[in-house]
Every structure is written in C-alpha cells, then in structure tokens.
# Entry
Amino acid sequence: MGGGRSALTFGVVVALIAGVTLGNGGASVMPVFVDDFAARFGMSDAGAGLVAAAQLMATAVLTLTLAKRAARPGRAKMARLGLVVAALGFLGTAWAPDEVTLILANLILGAGLGAVYAAATAALAAADDVDRASAATVIGTVCLSALLILAVSAANSGWGGGTGFVVMALSCVPAWLLVRRLPDGPGSAGDAPVEAESAESAKPSVILLIGTALLWAVTQGAWSYASVLGREHTGMSSSAVSAVLAVSSIVALAGAVLGPVSARRFGRMRSMAAFVSGQALAMAVLIWTRDPMLFTVAAVLWQACQLAVLVQMLAAAAVLDTSGRLVASLGGAGALGTGIGPLVVGVILDGAGAGVLSIVLAVGTFVTSFPLLRMTVASAAVARTEQAGHETKRTTVA
# Structure
C-alpha cells in the first residue's frame, strides 16, 4: 500500500486542480489547437490530426512511463519541471516556422504535460478523503478547462494564430507556483527498500490498463463526433448543437458530486455499475436518435455518468494504492485511449454508419468497464478493512 494520507486542505485541492488541468490541457483544448494548426499551416484535417496525435501520444507515454516515479517523493518537483518543459513546448508551437518544427514542439509540450499529469494524478491518492479529493479535482478541472478553451480561442481570434499557445505557456506560471502544495509520495531516502516493495506491489495489471484505455477511447471518440451526429441526424444547427454540448458539460458536473454520494450510499460496486450502464445507454441513444429533445437529454445524462465514473475510478484506485502509482497509470492509459479514440470511431462511422456505431460503443463501454469494476470490488474490500481497523482503534481507546 503506501504511506499515510495528507489532509485535504484548500491549498492541496488548488494544487491538484492546477496540476490535473494543465496535465490534461492538451486533450481539453485540442479542438482549438487543431483549428490553429490547420489555419496557420494550411494543413488538411488528417495533417492537423497527426500533429494532435503526436502531442497526445507523448503525454500518454510519459504519464505511463513516469507513473512509478510519481509514487515516490518529489512530486512537486516533477510537476514543476514538467510545466517548464511544457511552457517551452507551447512557445515553440506558437512560433514554429514549419510543420516539422511544429511536430517537434508538440512532442516536447506533450512530454512536459505527461510529467505534470503523472505527478498530479498520483498525488490524488495521498488525500485523506479520496472521494472528496477526486470530486473536487474533476469539478475544478472541468471549469478551468472551459476557461482555457475560451481564452485560447479568444487569443487566436483577437491577436492572430499561434497566440493561444502563448496563453497556455503563461498559464504554466501560476500552475508552477500552485503545484508546490501537491501531497508527496510515501517513503523517504531512509526507507527505500519499503518504498520499492510498495511501488512494485502497486503495479497495475495489463488488462486493467488496456480496459481503461479502451473505455476512454470509446468515450472520447464518441464525444469528438457528437457535434457532427447532432447536426446531421437531428437537423439542429451547428450553434444549437454546440449550445447543447456546452450546457451538457456544465450540468454534467452534478455527476462528479453524485458519484461519491452514490458510492457511500449504495456501495462502490453497485454505484459504478449503475453509472457505467447509464453512460453506455445514453451514448447509444445520443448516436442513434434523430429527435433533438432526446439528443439533448442523452447528452446531459451521458456526460453526467461519465464524470461519475471518472471520479469513482480515481477514488477506487487511490483507496487500493496510497503511493499513487495506480492512479497515475490509469491516467496515462486514459490519455492513450483519448488519443486513439477519434480515429477509431471515425473509421467505424464512415464504414458502417451511426446505427452500428451506437451498438459498438454501447457494448464496448460495458466490456471495457469490466476490469474497472473488478478494481472497484477490490477497493471496496480494502475500504471495509480500513474502516473496521478504525472502529477497532476507537473501541480500544474508549
């Protein structure tokens, strides 16, 4: 397991939000980035998508690679170094003179963001209340990511192409100051053998990582084409579909709150299974339906269930492994799935149509969630054991 937990103070929550927001900043703001790549360099959709994929893959690979390191002391230092590298990559992207430089700069910034994401997600496991920490982090990240999208888009529109990346580089400065409060990993220089043993025991299974990657590939792939499907299948205008998706993202924050509440009320396993089922069904309806009202309701329910699943996934992993390696590894696997999802979904949509896609994604959500559900069962058992231990201590003291 790992060392003790840290109190969830305001400073810790802010540090977690800052780290996860910037670490996941590439994926969150990617639609705006892709538009900028295409406009500045006259790239085709495929060309701009290649640059985006390079950045996302760099983030995913570095997150997975550094997950074991993030389980040890020095998270704040790792996050700060990652922010410096990312800032340099953002500036390089802003002033890239050609496509080759653009790709190299995106690889650099993706690597920097991967280090930040590994450190910040691992730090979630150190909180004394992992459910509250996960919920607060997800809610704060969603809100800050929305502000970043608006800021980057406004900069590109008002000051010219590429300036949005300068905004991203500048956002690394306050994040650099805030992440110093990230809870550190267990152990110290004096107990390296124990630390090494704990890190090894926390190594996630390949099946769990693959399942997580595929689940987020399904989720991100469907989200990437939600606007196209809404416009083509329901007859809604582009602005109407954008409004629906924007509102659904805000209303869906309720899912991040309901996730932990549901887990405490009904148990982690039953709660997780219910939200996964809701996510799968809502996703299928959103892709299949031709009714604007049903599309709107499905979009809200889908996003709410997705956030509830994310919060409970992070909390379950944090309960199982206080070192943070498992949380960081799942974050990296999710980032990997986020990078490949749009490509896979696009191929299925073009080749088989929306009807087949809705079935594939719904079934895919159920199947790929099985490893996460097994992890949830294990975390529930650990949580019951810890609670029994606390009750025994209180009885002894009394």
The chain is about 85% helix and 0% strand. The radius of gyration is 21 Å.
